[in-house]
Design brief:
The structure holds 3 protein chains of 3 kinds. By secondary structure, chain A is α/β, with parallel strands linked by helices. Chain A has 5 helices and 5 strands. In chain A, strands 2-1-3-4-5 form a 5-stranded parallel sheet, sandwiched between helices. In chain A, helix 3 links the parallel strand 3 and strand 4. In chain C, the strands form 2 sheets. Chain C has a 4-stranded antiparallel sheet with strand order 2-3-6-7. In chain C, strands 1-4 form a two-stranded antiparallel ribbon. The chains are: A alpha/beta, B mainly alpha, C alpha+beta. Chains in contact: A-B, A-C, B-C. The interface between A and C is medium-sized, with 38 and 32 residues. Strand 5 of chain A pairs antiparallel with strand 5 of chain C, so a sheet runs across the interface.
Chain lengths: 147, 334, 192
């Protein structure tokens, strides 16, 4: 719209769906800490929803083991457009410690997340600090504005 | 009844818009107060200066941004659902609620509130909202939706009884079913909050159940069933449901103030002064409801229904008996 | 139960006045602490330009093969792929020259489609060449560091001989040392 209200509303109220794709749970704990009183993400209007049909940001943590690889794509498709995907943690970006040797890929890992869904923002760290996750989410808001 | 004039039509279209913005401010207040009580800051009232470029100046209209964002997304339809019912139940609730908002007075002003049966019309139209939740939840072909709609039906049995009995006890004390007449009666005497506090408490507790605030959050229980009847809704249909909830909180709080607090009128002052008083009383009522919302965990559905039958219904019936006794023994007050 | 609700209400009101939120995405500390990061936090790597000699010990010990070295004709480049790093600190602990440190910086997110878009921290050192065959051998700084360390730690009685040997060895690649060991008089089985 001429006021830019559509783009503004998309950036002012993003709702996050957290997809746990295997992994040691550290990144999930740091993400939960982001919504705790100390690093309050509700200040920016962000809510953590457990329903992918209500969300616009898809935040993946963990290397995707082979069992969850088809399911991750299916859940990603259930988010309505426009959507943004964030890969959080070094396991989601490259497989982390689980993909140590490039010549001999890990028998259980179904690939870093970029093979399964299209990602937009990468947040490295093991686990990324809550401040890092907030930094990554702010970059995702810029991308969401222009989708 | 004569035909409605242009002024009445214009004001009837204007009042729902005002109610919508009041509902947004009440929704913001719920988030801010419950965040502050949990020792964190809620959505920013004034965004810090270094972030104003990316995040705007104020987040006072945060629920409005949620609604606009949801309106601009695509809506998804489950393939095995009953599509006609699934798509139309939010719109049915929206129409009911907009018409009810035209009947509810804001700061004692509403042209349609002087209709002789306006209290009955409002209470009847407000039944459209749980109706839509139940139908929409059952039409979405998911087990979460079905469980959620069953819970909504049970909870509706619980909260409708004290709501209607308390409203009618006030109508008995004012000897009329028109909301405008109830406000006028309170303007000359004391507000009914002081004359019949039992009905006031029963009405307030019934409203907490109607708005799905915390002890009675059961149909949309987030951790147990994914989102209850609203699970399969996304995009535009979810935006309609959020608009319905915004209207609902404005209508319920407005009805409480009209029935029990003289609509915001301060005796001895003129009608224009009732606008800030109405706003202040609305914010205070939402503050009380939010504190109850933050302090309490969630009831189970059978606990909620049993509690509703025990405490608020008995209170409301006592309020009705009190109203009749009041009319009999103190006719000078009425 | 009712008295517990009263106590809880008092605590809630105290919470309302003193929220514990830190200010993080805002850049100024006007409303409270910006954020608290300990000095020992492990974040982005920083190679010391002088101290890091390019020995490559960090590439051997890295837990997730995040640090890699690659040689070109003139220089050796050590590159930390932040997307793979788990910030354990083994590279920092094993470095013999203390040339690598993990700073507390944490803002490393990037917009990108794949892991190659993630940031990399790089450091290059010049490589020395063999005087005889001309191939590249070791980084110059590594040779100097070895000489310095040997001089510090050996028994002073052997200092002169070892220095004379090092003069010869440090200029040639391992293949040339082997093939020309008769000429250098360093063959272990022959007595000179």
């Amino acid at each position: 719209m001429r006021l830019g209200l559509k783009e503004k509303a998309r950036a002012y109220s993003p709702w996050i769906f957290h997809a746990h794709a295997g992994g040691c749970n550290n990144c999930d704990i740091e993400l939960a800490a982001c919504f705790a009183p100390r690093f309050d993400l509700e200040r920016m209007g962000i809510q953590l929803r457990n329903n992918p049909r209500h969300a616009d940001i898809f935040l993946v943590t963990g290397p995707a083991p082979k069992q969850i690889a088809p399911i991750l794509r299916r859940v990603y498709d259930q988010l309505p457009n426009p959507k943004v995907a964030i890969a959080c943690g070094s396991c989601a970006i490259t497989g982390g410690v689980y993909n140590r040797d490039d010549k001999k890929p890990n028998y259980a890992i179904g690939g870093p997340v970029e093979k399964l869904i299209p990602i937009d923002v990468l947040v490295p760290g093991c686990p990324p600090r809550p401040e890092s996750i907030i930094d990554g989410i702010m970059l995702a808001l810029e991308k969401l504005r222009h989708r | 009844m004569e035909l409605p004039s242009t002024i009445s039509i214009a004001s009837s279209l204007f009042l729902p818009i005002v109610s919508f913005f009041l509902g947004i401010i009440y929704g913001y207040e719920i988030r801010k107060v419950s965040a502050r009580l949990q020792s964190r800051r809620g959505p920013w009232l004034l965004v810090p200066k270094s972030l104003r470029g990316t995040l705007g100046v104020t987040r006072l209209f945060q629920p409005l941004y949620d609604i606009i964002k949801l309106l601009c997304k695509e809506s998804l339809l489950p393939s095995t659902s009953t599509k006609g019912l699934f798509r139309s139940s939010p719109y049915i609730a929206l129409i009911c609620v907009i018409v009810a908002a035209a009947f509810t007075p804001v700061a004692t002003y509403s042209h349609l509130a002087s209709f002789e049966l306006s209290l009955v019309v409002i209470l009847y139209l407000l039944l459209g909202v749980p109706f839509a939740f139940i139908l929409g939840g059952a039409a979405s072909a998911s087990p979460w939706g079905v469980i959620g709609s069953q819970r909504e039906a049970e909870l509706m049995l619980g909260y409708e009884t004290p709501l209607v009995i308390a409203a009618f006890s006030i109508a008995t004390m004012a000897d009329s079913l028109s909301v405008q007449k109830i406000i006028d009666v309170q303007a000359t005497r004391l507000p009914f909050l002081l004359l019949n506090p039992l009905a006031a408490v029963a009405f307030l507790v019934a409203i907490i159940g109607k708005l799905h605030l915390k002890p009675f959050d059961v149909p949309e229980a987030e951790v147990e069933i994914v989102a209850g009847p609203v699970t399969e809704y996304g995009g535009r249909l979810l935006a309609i449901i959020e608009i319905v909830k915004t209207f609902l909180i404005a209508i319920c709080v407005g009805l409480f103030i009209a029935l029990f607090l003289a609509g915001g009128l301060v005796p001895g002052y003129e009608k224009l002064f009732s606008i800030p008083t109405f706003l202040l009383e609305g914010l205070l009522i939402v503050l009380v409801m939010t504190m109850i919302h933050t302090l309490n965990p969630r009831f189970r559905i059978d606990q909620a229904l049993i509690w509703y039958v025990r405490v608020p219904t008995i209170l409301a019936i006592s309020g009705l008996v009190w109203a009749y006794a009041f009319r009999h023994f103190f006719p000078a007050f009425i | 139960m009712k008295y517990g609700v009263v106590k809880l209400t008092k605590e809630l009101l105290r919470n309302a006045i003193h929220p514990v939120t830190v200010n993080y995405p805002a850049k100024k500390e006007s409303l409270g602490a910006l954020t608290e990061i300990a000095d020992e936090s492990r974040g982005k790597h920083r190679f010391d330009e002088i101290k890091c000699v390019g020995c490559g010990a960090c590439t051997i010990v890295c837990s997730s093969s995040a640090i890699t070295e690659s040689d070109s004709d003139l220089e050796r480049t050590l590159s930390v792929e932040i997307g793979r790093c788990i910030f354990c600190g083994r590279c920092r602990d094993i470095c013999p020259e203390k040339g690598l440190e993990l700073t507390p910086e944490f803002e490393m997110s990037k917009k990108g489609q794949s892991a190659n878009d993630c940031i990399k921290v790089e450091h290059s050192v010049p490589l020395g060449t063999c005087d005889k065959c001309g191939r590249t051998t070791f980084p110059i700084g590594q040779i100097e560091a070895v000489r310095k360390r040997v001089n510090e730690k050996i028994d002073p009685a052997n200092l002169v001989i070892v220095n004379k040997d090092m003069e010869i060895f440090m200029r040639y690649c391992p293949d040339c040392r082997r093939t020309a060991s008769y000429a250098f008089k360093t063959h272990p089985r022959k007595s000179y």
